[in-house]
Amino acid sequence: MSPEQLTSMIVTVSTIIVTIGVLFGVMVFNRKRNKFVTVSKEEAQNLPTYRCPKCGFNMSPGYTFTQRGLYWRKVNEKPIGRLMTSGKLQNNTYNLGFTPAENRAWKCERCQILTLDISELVQIK
After folding, report:
1. Per the confidence metrics, is the pTM higher than 0.85?
2. Can you give the C-alpha Rg of the chain in angstroms?
């Protein structure tokens, strides 16, 4: 085996090891930061109803998939820029796991207001 081939193989193996390490780290971060619950399909369909805070009509219950997280700030804080920090990332909204998980949500079809429950991520079995 030539030195160039050996170097190429070492670089490839090193890249694979680093990639696996990063993926493992993301999965650990995902599990530590989030609270997951598993519900049946029947339980998933029995969401409570809420009234829209703007118009007072019933909101449609459902789910939303945020995957990369939800960033939030108070009105008196500096706007979030392109380089968002994980400090503003809301728990239970960041999910890069292999099993999709969603947040419970309610949407007013009239006003286009969306209300999210970010107390936990729901996995439907």
Report:
1. no
2. 21
DSSP state letter for 48:
P
What are the tokens at 65? 């998939």
Task: Specify burial of residue 103 (Cβ count, 10 A radius: 0-12, 13-18, 19+).
Answer: buried
What span, in angstroms and rounded, lies between the C-alpha atoms of 21 and 31? 15
**Segment 17-67, tens digit of pLDDT:** 998 888 777 666 666 778 889 999 999 999 999 999 999 999 999 999 887
Burial class (CB in 10 A: 0-12, 13-18, 19+), 59: buried
Structure tokens, 7: 């170097």
User: Could you report how far apart the first and last alpha carbons of the chain are, in Å?
Assistant: 51
Q: Would you give the DSSP letter of residue 87?
A: G
